Each structure stands twice: as C-alpha cells, then as structure tokens.
Amino acid sequence: MNVDIHAHYIPAESLRMASEIGRRQGLASAKDERGRDVVTRNGKPYLNQPKAEFSNLELRLSIMDSQGIDMQLLSPASTYFFYWMAPEESLAYARWLNQRLADAVAKYPKRFVALGSAPLQEPALAVSEMERAVTKLGLRGVEVASNVNGRYFDDPGMTPFWEAAQALDVLLFVHPNQVVGAERMKEYNLANLIGNPTDTSLAVAKMIFGGVLERFPKLKIILAHGGGFLPYTWGRLDRGFRIQDSSKSLIANLPGEYLRLLHFDTVTHSAMALEYLVANFGADKVLLGSDYPYDMGDPQPVESLRKAKLSAEQVEAIASANACKLLGIGV
After folding, report:
1. CB within 8 A of 104, min separation 6: which ones?
2. 211 φ, ψ (degrees, to nearest 5)
3. CA-CA distance, 270 to 249, in Å (whole number)?
C-alpha cells in the first residue's frame, strides 16, 4: 500500500466559512474580474477560489489511482491556518475544518486519514483543539506552520503544545508559511522556491538549538519538502555548536543528532537529493509525499521514488511501512 503523507485538502465551503468566521477580522466575500468567488482582507485580495482538485474527493481518488497512491494523509492548506486572527475566530475555523476533514475520512476510510489544524497563536486553545481532533474526531495529529506570526518553535509559550503533542503521541506535520525574507524574494517565485525550505530550516534550527527536542525527544514530526535545507547542511550546524561557548548552550548533543529524531517527506524534486536524505538519515525516517495538488508538488511521487537508487526494502519502507507505523494504519 502506497501512502502519500503530504496532500492538502480545502473543503468546498472554505471560502464562505472563512469570510463568515473572519468577518470581524476584515474578511469578506467578493468576486474577481472573472466572476469567481474570492475572499478579501480589508478590501484587498486574500484567498482565491481553489481548483477542483483541492475539494473534489472523487476527482482526487481518480488522480490517486493514476499515481499508484492507495491512501492519502489529508492536511489543511497553510493559507487557512489563520494564526493572524483573534484566537477565538481562528479556533472556530479550525473546529469547522477539522470536522470536514473527519467527514472526508469517514466517507472513504480506506483511502484517507487526516491531520487537523489548531490555533497556535494561543497554545492553550491549540492543545484543547488538538486533543478534540484526535480523541473525538479520530484525526492522527495536526499540521503546524513553520512560524506563528513570526514566533518560532523555541518560543517558551509553545511549551504546553509540545508537552501535549508528546503525551498524546500524535503526528505533527511542519509546513512553511509566511516565510522569512519574503519581501526580498518577490521575483521569480523565490518566496516559494527558496523561502519555503528556508523557513522550515529556520524553524527546526531554532527548535534544536532552543532545546525543544532535548526536552521532548519523542515528538513525532515530519518536515515538508525534504526537510528544507537543514538535512543537507547539518554539518554546518554541528561545526557551529562545536565552536560556540558551551556554557550558553541549551542542548547536550550535536545538532545533527536531534535532526535524526525527525522525519522527512520525499518532495525533493531530485533523485540525488532523495538518495542523500536516505543515506544520511535512514529509510525509516523518510515518507512518500506529493504536495498534492499544488503545481510545485510531485505529480508522480511513486515513480519519483522508484527512480532513486534505493533498495526494494528502502522503497517499501518509504512508500508504506513508515507511514503505517507513524499513523497507526492497519492497527
């Protein structure tokens, strides 16, 4: 069974619900120049009508079949995290979205599992919604952005969230959003091409050096897009750790040792990069992903995996066994 752990879902009513719940936050329904539904924020374009592949489950299933994908782990699109909203409105949207994700799984339980959303700008509310999503709705964890309004994972205020996630033994999928330096990467789509892996790298570096993984080593975390840049430059982190004043360090081991606690998807767009990832961190730390249905995703993730110079056992682990173990599929 091939399991795609990086696939985004936007329910059909998402724009309407966003404008209703976010009304006091400046969101409103509108039409673009072609008559399509959009959402504006304080009068400026904010959310566009998503293409059918995001919301149409039957269409999604037909595409999965053509890709050789047996099951997808559905997760929210990062544009719908709404961390910038007042926590109460963000929570209201997360609760609505998580129910829709649970509904999709209930409709096709042999084809989908799902991760939910939680309002991380208020960690206490995020913990409450994560617990509800997992224990009441049957979701397998939550997707989190690489930063929360510019706050990163070493922020002390996020400690209760890490505590709860480790105690619940849920999966956390880290996806970049509102990336650092975007104002300097407006040309050539670089905020996506360079900004996305950069922000993931920054988030994880702060998490490591800030001692989060020292204190919560059993967190189950998957990083999008092959882990950003850190898996390929971890030696630089280790060098920096060796030369710094040890009295100022919050961690006891080399940064690369904490990086080995994490998991990575296969969305590298390079067989060589994927081979390197597996060689350095092990096939048991890599999981099949597509970033469906974004244009920067991999439209044929199984084929890409098979093109890499990996053993049959490694391919099986990456495509199936690792996801089944982390998500409790078939248990």
Report:
1. 9, 11, 57, 74, 112, 114
2. 85, 10
3. 35
**Residue pair 166/219 in contact by the 8 Å Cβ criterion:** yes
Find where tokens 């480790």 sit: 166
261 is written with which tokens?
């606690």
Write out pLDDT tens, residues 256-274.
Answer: 999 999 999 999 999 999 9
Tokens 């673009």, residue?
32
Residue 44 backbone phi and psi in degrees, to 5? -110, 145
Query: Which 3 state secondary structure label does DSSP give 221?
Result: strand
Look-up of token digits 């898996």: 231
- Condensed to tens digits (0 to 9), the pLDDT of residues 276-313 reads 999 999 999 999 999 999 999 999 999 999 999 999 99
| Angstrom distance (rounded) from CA 317 to CA 207 | 27
State the amino acid at position 85 in one-letter form: M
Strand partners, 30: 38
Other beta carbons within 10 angstroms of residue 3's beta carbon come to 24
Look at residue 37 and give its three-state secondary structure: strand
For residues 319 and 288, the answer to whether their CB atoms sit within 8 Å is yes
Distance, in Å, from the CA atom of 276 to the CA atom of 286, rounded to the nearest integer, reads 11
DSSP labels for 278-319?
HHHH-GGGEE----BTSTTS-S-HHHHHHHSS--HHHHHIII
